[in-house]
Design brief:
Layout lengths: L1 H17 L8 H8 L2 H10 L13 H7 L3 H9 L17 H7 L3 H9 L4 H10 L3 H13 L6 H6 L27 E7 L13 H14 L8 E5 L5 H15 L5 E7 L2 E3 L6 E3 L9 H4 L1 E2 H9 L5 E7 L32 E5 L9 E2 L4 E2 H12 L11 H20 L6 E4 L3
Length: about 425
């Protein structure tokens, strides 16, 4: 039975890869199968294809995984490919992880597991197929990804970040010390895992934790004035509570407010508005389940604060990276400054421009933007004696660094933005 199934699968796959009945694969799927990352980027940037578009029932991610095109797999995931998508047709229920294991693409399988692929589902299908070798390989790879943390901690916080810890230079807190500012308030949000099983926003939770540590231990923010919302603690109701009630009840004239968000953004394809995606957000119903930038800026603009700084390690076009979009919709070119009148005391530092994606910096274990944000704070003398930030100096440091690494290591354009009313 195993041999019969394998024969049927291989016959179908050969037909699929050749193009059924003489019909070639679409350009995106063909480029993904060939590992042609340049063409994949061009096609996605032009908006001619959706990253989760189907051909013969399968997404481009499936084709890249089958042929072991690890860089293309990484690119598609960064661009928002659904890691849980399964093929239809004759190989109904096959995920990218399952086909990677079945075809012996160990490195691709390892990457997919790191990014949150459904291991249990793949193992169940391998067991059903009596693919003992594949089952043992997947079992071994999955065990290597298990963190060395106490089970009781995981049981108490099932959605906390459990990805392998990578130490970088910014993980050691800066030696700068400023006086404690009792009128400094912060909301720090990191969402890596989503209830709707959206693509994982790698490093988002540990980035948020580190930002909170910088604020409290080096920048003078009282610990009781820093709200840190991670994963399932960052639902839409939490956004409403802290942005619209908690800050309003606490911030006084002369206060400093810092807001940090790391996670997915999403566009409303009908209105063009940009949204933060809470833990319980759904890009298909983003106006009901998301928290719009416009709403956040309006809530912040009502505060009597002396200075408000917003740092967004996210993107909003739906083209991938740290952005998601409703299934079947095409990415948008977002105008992050349009229709958003910021109050004169507010400055926004965004990871990328409206049509770009926000990358991770895997070798450092952080979001690319967040890494240089904190490195700038640590090393570039941008903190004033009162704990506030010289925003122009910080931005002048971040922008060229992010552009350089994005272009050099990821063949990608990422240009941070500094948005704010002229003082």
């Amino acid at each position: 039975m195993k041999k019969i199934f394998a024969g049927i699968f291989i016959l179908f796959l050969l037909t699929l890869l050749a193009g059924c009945a003489g019909v070639p694969l679409p350009a995106l799927h063909s480029a993904a199968r060939a590992g042609d990352t340049k063409t994949v980027i061009e096609l996605l940037d032009k908006g001619e294809y959706n990253v989760n578009e189907l051909s013969y029932g399968c997404t481009p991610l499936y084709f890249a995984a089958w042929d072991g095109r690890i860089e293309t797999v990484r690119l598609l995931l960064d661009r928002g490919a659904d890691i849980h998508a399964k093929c239809g047709g004759n190989i109904q229920g096959w995920s990218a992880l399952l086909v990677a294991i079945h075809s012996g693409q160990t490195d691709v399988a390892r990457l997919l597991i790191e990014r949150g692929a459904d291991v249990d589902d793949a193992m169940a299908k391998l067991e059903q197929m009596k693919n003992t070798a594949g089952f043992k390989l997947l079992e071994r790879l999955a065990k290597k990804q298990q963190p060395s943390r106490q089970t009781e901690t995981l049981a108490a916080k099932p959605f906390q970040d459990v990805s392998p810890t990578i130490k970088s230079d910014i993980d050691e807190l800066p030696t700068i010390k400023v006086n404690r500012n009792k009128n400094a308030y912060a909301i720090v949000i990191g969402i890596e895992n989503y209830r709707q099983k959206l693509p994982k926003a790698d490093y988002a939770t540990q980035d948020a934790k580190l930002v909170a540590d910088y604020l409290i231990k080096s920048m003078g923010y009282p610990e009781e004035n820093v709200v840190t919302l991670l994963n399932d603690r960052a639902a839409k109701s939490d956004f409403e509570k802290y942005f619209e009630k908690w800050l309003h009840n606490n911030v006084e004239k002369g206060s400093t407010v810092f807001v940090y968000f790391s996670g997915h953004g999403a566009p409303n394809t009908k209105t063009g508005d940009a949204y933060l995606v809470p833990y319980d957000g759904d890009p298909s119903f983003i106006d009901q389940t998301g928290y719009s930038l416009k709403r956040m800026y309006e809530a912040l603009g009502k505060l009597p604060a002396k200075e408000i700084v917003v740092a967004l390690d996210s993107c909003f076009s739906g083209a991938g990276g740290r952005s998601v979009i409703a299934k079947g919709a095409r990415p948008l070119v977002m105008n992050l400054q349009g229709n958003m009148a910021l109050s004169r005391n507010m400055t926004v530092l965004s990871a990328s421009s409206g049509e770009q994606i926000s990358s991770t910096y895997d070798e450092k274990g952080h979001g690319l933007f967040t890494y240089f944000l904190l490195k700038g704070i640590k090393n570039e003398d941008v903190i004033k004696p009162d704990g506030s930030i010289k925003m122009e100096d910080l931005f002048d440091y971040i922008k060229p660094q992010v552009e350089r690494i994005a272009r050099k290591q990821y063949n990608n354009e990422q240009t941070p933005q500094l948005i704010g009313a002229k003082k």
